Amino acid sequence: MLKQFSLLACFCLAKASLAADLDIIIPEFPEDHAIQFDTYPQQDTSTFIKGSELLANTESLIRQSLKPKVILIIDDLGDNYRLAKRIVDLPAKINLAFLPNTPFAKKLAQQGYQKGHDIMLHFPMEATTRPDLLGKGALTHQHSKEQAEQLFQANLEQIPHVVGFNNHMGSLMTQSADHMRWVMDYAARRNLFFVDSRTIASSVAIDQALQQGVPSLGRDVFLDPVSDSITSEQQLMRALSIADKKGQVVVIGHPYRSTIELLERELPFIAQHYQLVTVSEYWQSNQKAIN
């Protein structure tokens, strides 16, 4: 209970401090904007009611659009059904990244899609260390362009409703301009978005994605670089601070019990102060803003 209070208290103080520093002015609407219908007893009031509702909806939309965006991705799903089901059932729309060749990926992806989450492929890619953690379906330096595309397609076919992907590991592959160009060329043809997990600072994945016209984002914060509750709480506060300063943050977490407990406790509260959005919603809103 003490940890919960401390996290929420820090959150409120950080938000209040930010608003004061930035001198944010939120448009206000008069509380008495509703029309007094008893003044017009013989008049059809239906149009006035609609107008009042429209004004209220406009106020809500403006306030919502001013909230910083939090894009939360949970990786490594598909192996453990019970833990992943708790993530699927979280009270907010998030992004679920499934590993190919896992026993529960298809079933959980279907459930996640029905809940409104974005479904992603967590594409295994060769790293500089720990090949034992890659699993099946991994892209390696030995793959040719044709082989890379065939592998990508085979991985996608295992998981329904995929709208985008990010890299699982990949500290070696995301440095390879050739392999990333091949992957992004295929992603563009499949109309997928990409999120760089940024497992290494020298990744060229986003550069290649942009060259191929693939909508792309990069990870800002790992929610749980180690699986303990104190670290996760600290990382969550760091993520919210970045969102406050930049207007958005991309957070990647994993199906650890400590992470799930933190999200089950905090997401309803965070949703009151931030926009929890899927990656596809993020790009849709950006496109509307451009048009």
TrEMBL record:
Residue ranges crossing the lipid bilayer per the database entry: none
Pfam families, alphabetized: Polysacc_deac_2 (PF04748)
UniProt keywords, alphabetically: Signal
GO biological process: carbohydrate metabolic process
Top-level lineage group: Bacteria
InterPro entries found in the cross-reference section: Divergent_DAC, Glyco_hydro/deAcase_b/a-brl
Cleaved signal peptide residues: 1-19
Designated name of the protein: Divergent polysaccharide deacetylase
Record organism: Pleionea mediterranea
